[in-house]
Description:
Layout: E1 30-31, H1 35-41, H2 46-53, H3 57-64, E2 68-69, H4 71-81, H5 85-89
Antiparallel strand pairs: 1-2
Helix pairs in contact: 2-3, 2-4
Amino acid sequence: MMTSKRPARVPRVTKASTLPDSVPRPTALFPTPALRYWRLRRMLTQGELAEQANVPRSAIARLEASGVARPSTIRKLAAVLRVAPDDLRQSPPDD
């Protein structure tokens, strides 16, 4: 008796990608060593910066404690602080 084999299940692939949807995408993460410097220069609390940038306050605290952020988060923070995103990724200036 011959058994029919079912074709292997092929993962769904989105049009814009060649990876199946189930595969996590690599995310670039960058340190923000100057975040605290610029936040204090603008006289903002962590909560105020978080609210204006629409990110959790815990994210601000984590980033200031040597955390890393996605480029989109860095852009949001830089816009509120009125600096270039690269300014947050550099060592803080010596005052």
